[in-house]
Amino acid sequence: MSDQAISISHLHKSYGPLHVLRGVELDVARGDIFGLLGPNGAGKTTLTHTVLGLLRPDDGTVRIFGSEDREKMSKRIGYLPERPRYHGQFTGREYLSSLGRLSDLSGKQLHDRIDAVVEIVGLGQAAERRIGTYSKGMLQRIGIAQAVLHEPELLIIDEPASGLDPGGQREMAMLLRTLSDAGHTIFLCTHQLTDVARLCDRIGVLVNGRIADIASLPELRARGQSVTINVADLPHDTADALESLGPEVRCERVSVTLFPTSDRLMEAVLRRLLDDGVVVQSVVPEADALEHFYHNTVHQAKSAPAQPLASAETSEELLETLIEDR
Amino acid sequence: MAAIRRILTFTQFTLTEYVRSGRIIIEIIATMLFWALFLRQWPVDLNQFFSLTGVFTLLLSMYSTSALLSLGERPQGYTIITRPLGRPGYLLSHYFVALIVVGAMFLLVTAVTLFYNQLVFRGAFEFPLGEVMKGAIPLLLNVALLASLMVLLSSLVLNNTLRLLVLAILAIALYSQAWHLSPIFPYIRPLQSLFSWPVYPAIAGFKLATTREFTGPALYIPLSQLALTVLLMSLALSAFKRRDIILRNQ
Questions:
Q1: What's this model's pTM, rounded to 2 decimal places?
Q2: What residue spans in chain A does CATH classification 3.40.50.300 cover?
Q3: What was the ipTM of the complex prediction?
């Protein structure tokens, strides 16, 4: 039995001339909550859909619990799509009943499971109403309910907080934590750093169709603290001189970021800025190691000579545009 | 067995949605309009009945199959396809719902015609049940055949290039006299001989529905209709299995 819930090797996927996934390598261990981060158009939805078997890889393999046969594994997978769209003509309970039967549940077992998931996601009496009348928050709840109904070992969740208010986002995070405690492996695809910080054991950043870096939150904290020095304007010469101090220094037009920082490095950078007459506006210690990790990884990966993937706002929009070309 | 149970479950689910959403009203209105225009004005015998309903059910089958497949292209499908029902079950269920809807409309128009024939035309022509059944079999097999072709030609199953290719083959197969005037006719003729054979079961089935003479080689016509339907659906399922599934956001 494989220890990996998901094992992806050398995965490539193109839409015509657009090479979206460019050799993704990724393992997600059983029981983990794995967060897949990435900027818009990075290929997150394409990767998720390929893992689900909706898209066929051009090259490489995707194994779920050690098997490449996705249809065989489908009973062990639950999926919450990014945009909560469900069959509005049915009541929540009717919908769950039909989807449960599609996952081979029946009789008392199905009835009990529906009661249980309605309770878990907090649908309450809304389960008796037609889905077409649900608010966005309710749609997310029915989405989670259908995803966990058949007690899948692996949950693939695309943007769980999409469209939810802050209260709803917190509830969703608590719900996912409860599911994780119950033994589900969760593959969370998002661009919300707060979701990831609240929930994930490990984090991967997808940029330009590749996993640019993977880390766990404790690892990130151990990597050190970062500091951002905001300036009025940073001349090129000063920026070059600062970056020559070491790889810990990253310059942008109006800021200098030090990661990991140290007293000696900070002193050297500030001295150079003051000597060159650069106006220092503020020095902000970045408490969030995850945020730094994300921005740094994306920055470095984008600096690498690779073509941008798409101008579409999201991968889903990219897919929509491709529908017309089918 | 589990696969059949899942397909039946999703067929029932899709049919329920189709009815509850009110989309079926279009079919009901079309059927009643057809009856009012072609079957209500004067008494029709069985031959006329089957030649008229034979054309109508084919048109209805084109519409209903397209309508149902467009439902299958909504993003709601993602949570269904990723379940054990899988791709084949998803496509087959939509196909079966199309057959059920068209079959129900055929029953409706038959029942209304029979009733009206008895009530207003005082049974001017006889509609023995056995004869109705004999005509209904090739007629409904033609519906199944055309629906399977529609499934194969849907954007869910084939990409634009392959759809154009199949349509080109159909255009060659269903040639008209106009082809003879074309300078490329001598080149197309051999292709036509090749491609036109799959059209025969449909045409022969239509004739069989109107004559209802199940004698000699005519017995093989329903079998050939069925075989061609199975072949087209197998092609559609095979293509769908290999396809990237990108559902529309509506």
A1: 0.84
A2: 4-218
A3: 0.86
